[in-house]
């Protein structure tokens, strides 16, 4: 069960409201790199967690933290929208600076939300929940979570560079820090479970007789005019320690020509197809 | 530039066509765990790749392989739809077996595609390209790719269990194998770049003075009635070797109460809010 | 800031797991009538609340409750999926009962989530955040909230009728009760603000000289072959007490024929349009 | 059956075409607050209307009016796009005013529609029909309709403030008026059916033994650090006249810890979860 | 301006209600081949029509007809849902026939709409307005319309084969007929404008010096292991009468290797990319 | 099976990087008129092709070419983003030119992709695969393909007018040329199959006794105040040579008033509806 206390997790101040930056900040709320995504992803993973209960607790505790991140980011968006123009004035229509600001802001921040945050990204596209990755496989889910936090910290770092506002920089520096921890926390779960080599391949429960092992360790070079790039992936022991990497150059197709023959009567095709 | 040869990458046979399994297979084509996603994700990452050109080649070569996976899966769906009923007959209407088959199949496999594959998932929801993760940060992207392949192999393993068809099992065993390789290949890129500890935190180019380092290494326990779960994430050196994990129990909010005050005139609020 | 305690808000038991009912329950999680929607709607309204701080607190408190509803519904879905078939067996393939169950279940409950809840509706369509209605106008928002709870209670009542499971009926009877309270709570805010007649028209802050008042109180009967339906809406004082309802029969258009003339050169039209 | 006459419902003129305002106006066509939504919502409610035929007629008549609103708004968008630049000129590339205009306009108004209206919102996001709320319950539907008209009038009022164009102000004043009527018309249906107290709870046909009535009338205060806000919702008779409002402070969870145990073999989980 | 008369455009009867067929019929309402799409497509094309006013009238008249098609199809869905089970009974739970019917029906036809039509397709996916194609180019639009009607008649023909109900067959035979006319009507507009050869290439207003004409008439054979297929497209005069078709075999790329070099500082990339 | 060679199909140069033009170019990648759409549409049509194998080869060869178009357009976007600002500087914040550029660019080109192409349109809306039209009917599919290429060439022509960059104009002139060929190539398939009159109506395999032929050849004039527009569509032989066009003026509805009666008990309606 969830509870709420009335203060924000972290102090948010905005020295100079900036409607354009409000638009950019939306990516951290409703973007695929944003906080709604991680809050919901960890929440659904927690609800489906099977096995070690510590992982469920980790997931739920961090889902709860991410909800608090949505909250202070939402406040930051509203503060950046303070003072944004809500009526058009004659002088503004001719002022390129004002026009530029209006042009670069999200008009729905006024039209739809009345100067507050929305669950959309920096293009105004609403977040959709298909981005909540929760497979029931703890290895796949921990990688998904580390990925989400990597994207989140990339985003927060870019946002940091795009503002001069002291308050905004301070808030973003907090997010940059928490995303560092969260990246590590999910990868630490993999460590706790024996490390990457024990976890791979994901799922590690698939019986080997379900797998065409002769195809499990080569890099397929589908490039016609280049040698395969050489590196850790092209030779030496595989990361799971059970095979040896190799390269398959200029592969010939192994399958058939996929002809489906004629269309069936009554299937809605043209007569010429039958 | 892309090229095509007329044979499939891998032989596809279906011993007993099964429209219900055709519906399930769609998840491997148009699901978030499916082949359209990885093909497009690696393709867009390749187009935006900066730095070591080997990585761009790896990405493009594997994008190309994934396109070939879409192709043979699409053929598998069409073969499973061979013989599916296209007209209703009086006896069928009363036959629970036929009804069950029709009920469990995707009706759009007849209505919309005329007995062939569609770019949709097992619920008939079209794939949307917001799932193409390509950040321009090679660390974030490699984790995203390993995640995608983990989800893909989980899916292929589940599909393998849901069919008795020899041909389908053979095809899925090939996918299970390739997904093993692809998981490792992307993680091997991280190894090549110095390993996880060198890559973390992602992005590793963010200056430390952009980060509130005092918040970078603690697990925040937002659970009111439980101790924080203990593990690799709660104590000991951080994975990036630059800090020490700790736990922050029962946190007090650090921020303010986020009151926005009154609504502005002309902002479309109710009079009572002003 | 949010917090979490480890127990569910309400006890959830399932006497007989039913994968088909798990699919139906998803509507209460990820449908437009579901709990993700209300949790997020109240949360975003709270973050944008201006004026009376009591309303912000009401919104945030109830957002927090709805998060707890997601949590126990998610558990209910997982319990209903216990024992669902994860492999196909020869006898099952021929058993119409098993086939019917599989046909009526959501295959992604196995394929994608590994037997747990997803943020999707009963058709497997993911929730998208465009359904979070938060206008910054408290009158519009309270109506939106009462609407959401009305839809929610309609849904819960229908679900109640579709299960014989004692545990599920008990859980749904709790939701039916909470939705009763929530409907009333949002409408009570309107009462607190002076009642409907004081709130209408929404927004009540729009100056009357922004409105073509001669068009404000008639029902427009666009039906060619019927008299306008008579009722509270067709005569008598308006609900806001500032006008008198009437009917405008068989209206003539007041506007012009909307001809746009020729297409401009270089606008990508056909030559014949220019 | 529908019919059409060639003139617009209302005269539309634009004194000074403004591509930026064309973009804003799109919200009134293809936004969730817009005319496509209400036209389709009332149309689908009418098609599913059961009970009093007057309501079906009301719904269909107003659906028909809203189609006419789409039509004149579509014309308004096209008129605002008259004269928008379709080729780039050297001087424009350096002129910040022109650049600002181009930056603030929707480029798809040229690229995709050739200077005419599209079924998208002010961010260019297409309208999707999941926003058509039609439950088959007349109480829920009337609230949904009043909500839609409230959002619509908020939007029209904001748009009115964002233009100086006499023609556009005139057109918007007409929409502001019609939305006033439509808000009242749907609420008047509830009056006709006995008023809010008779309608609540929605659905009012759910038997009370389907409801855990002990949970039907308290406000749940999930806020840890604040008293529940006091008001019409916290004490006194409930709006449906069948109960008494109260507050439940600092609730303890009533449910269990939701542990799912181990993952099943063959379910695609990691070995460590089994 | 639109008007409505109370009778359906065409008589709709259902001899034996069939909830599964109700689900299939939804494709004709809310599918990409359905009536909402054509109604809205012709409506938006009409609103943006420039040039010959007859075309605008054709578009608006047919948009209006398609609205009437939605209306009678919506009624057909509701009639097919008459008598669908709304409560579960003990015997039904064990009856495979009933289960098959429930499994094959759309549960949201009860849960969300209360036994009436929804603006969704046969998979329950809501229609989204991005499918409204209206380019402002009459040639492109007429092809798009003929395409939509072709898809519509394919769908209606398939639906016809999937029902034994006399009433449903009669209604579908009407749609099959109207779609024949509509296909021809849009292609007849192209005839009226001089025929295909005059219309091609679309847009026919693009100056030839904007086009790399040396690439305008060859079929590019990207197949590595096959000769190009021979036909009307590979030799002989082009359809626009301005060129000669040819085949370009085994093409060499004409472009460069697309290397982007290093990532920029402060761009959020990994250090190794810089 | 697919293969790749390392050079682009066509040389791409950008003389002066322009982040605003990068945003516009996205329409040609991820718009409904763009290259992802045609690549995937032809690919899925090829996978489902039944009948003449030459058509399957045509489809697959051209799908492959379109993938190469995505590739060089993706490079063009990245080149236009070279030099775009990644940090804010004090002078920039006050410079209207810089602000205008930032306002008119897509912020996600930095925030999400790190200065490279994304699978989105010019509004930042991701491409969704519901736009892949592949019906299994070759007539419907060829029209859909000609439509897609018509939209594509309209778009490329408009983009050509919106840039002064020599390199971009050259690249677009290549696309304008290829789209000319592709339009003709798909229409040439219809010629090869006997021409339009033999193909119509689509599907031409529907038995005439499935069609209410008395409704197959009239234009329905639903306009109340205008004669039907006269033209090739209103009189003379039909395009399929099997009928004669006519006009049906001021039609009376042929159907019934669609009343559904009362709502059923337990269906979630209000008591007043029962």
Secondary structure topology:
The structure is a homohexamer of 274-residue chains.
Chain A: E1 2-4, H1 19-30, H2 35-47, H3 53-81, H4 90-94, H5 96-104, H6 108-111, H7 138-161, H8 166-192, H9 196-199, E2 218-221, E3 246-249
Helix pairs in contact in A: 1-3, 1-7, 2-3, 2-7, 3-8, 7-8
Q: Estimate the global geometry of chain A from the Cα principal axes.
A: extended
Number of helices of chain A: 9
Largest sheet of chain A: 2 strands, parallel
Main sheet of chain A: which strands, in order across? Answer: 2-3
Helix and strand run of chain A: EHHHHHHHHHEE
Helix/strand structural class of chain A: mainly alpha
What CATH first level of the largest domain in chain A would be assigned? Mainly Alpha
| Major interchain interface with per-chain residue totals | A-B, 119 and 119 residues
Number of strands of chain A: 3
Question: How would you describe this structure to a colleague?
Answer:
Chains A, B, C, D, E, F: Its cofactor is Ca(2+); Mn(2+). Chains A, B, C, D, E, F: Residues 229-274 are annotated as: Disordered. Chains A, B, C, D, E, F: Mn(2+) 2 binds at residue 66. The structure is a homohexamer of 274-residue chains. With 274 residues, chain A is mainly α. The first copy, chain A, has 2 domains: 19-197, Ferritin, core subunit, four-helix bundle (Ferritin), CATH 1.20.1260; 206-253. Chain A is 46% helix and 4% strand. Chain A is built from 9 helices and 3 strands, in the order βαααααααααββ. Chain A has helices at residues 19-30, 35-47, 53-81, 90-94, 96-104, 108-111, 138-161, 166-192, 196-199; strands spanning 2-4, 218-221, 246-249. The first copy, chain A, has a two-stranded parallel sheet. In chain A, helix 3 runs antiparallel to helix 8 (166-192). Chain A is extended and about 70 Å long. The mean pLDDT of chain A is 94.
């Amino acid at each position: 069960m969830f509870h709420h206390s009335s203060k924000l997790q972290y102090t948010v101040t905005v020295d100079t409201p900036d409607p354009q930056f409000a638009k950019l900040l939306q990516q951290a709320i409703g973007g695929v790199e944003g906080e709604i995504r991680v809050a919901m992803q960890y929440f659904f993973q927690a609800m489906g967690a099977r096995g070690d209960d510590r992982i469920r607790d980790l997931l739920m505790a961090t889902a709860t933290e991410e909800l608090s991140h949505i909250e202070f980011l939402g406040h930051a968006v509203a503060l950046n929208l303070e003072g944004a123009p809500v009526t058009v004035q004659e002088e503004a229509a001719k002022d390129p600076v004002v026009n530029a600001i209006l042009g670069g802001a999200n008009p729905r921040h006024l039209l739809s939300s009345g100067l507050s945050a929305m669950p959309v990204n920096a293009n105004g596209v609403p977040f959709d929940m298909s981005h909540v990755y929760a497979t029931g496989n703890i290895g796949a889910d921990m990688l998904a979570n580390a990925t989400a936090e990597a994207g989140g910290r990339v985003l927060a770092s870019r946002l940091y560079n795009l503002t001069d506002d002291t308050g905004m920089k301070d808030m973003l520096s907090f997010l940059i820090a928490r995303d560092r921890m969260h990246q590590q926390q999910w990868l630490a779960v993999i460590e706790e479970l024996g490390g990457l080599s024990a976890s791979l391949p994901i799922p590690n429960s698939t019986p080997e007789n379900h797998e065409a092992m002769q195809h499990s360790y080569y890099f397929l070079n589908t490039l016609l005019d280049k040698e395969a790039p050489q590196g850790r992936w092209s030779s030496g022991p595989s990361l799971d320690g059970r095979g040896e990497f190799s390269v398959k150059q200029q592969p010939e197709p192994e399958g058939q020509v996929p002809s489906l023959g004629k269309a069936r009567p009554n299937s809605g095709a043209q007569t010429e197809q039958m």
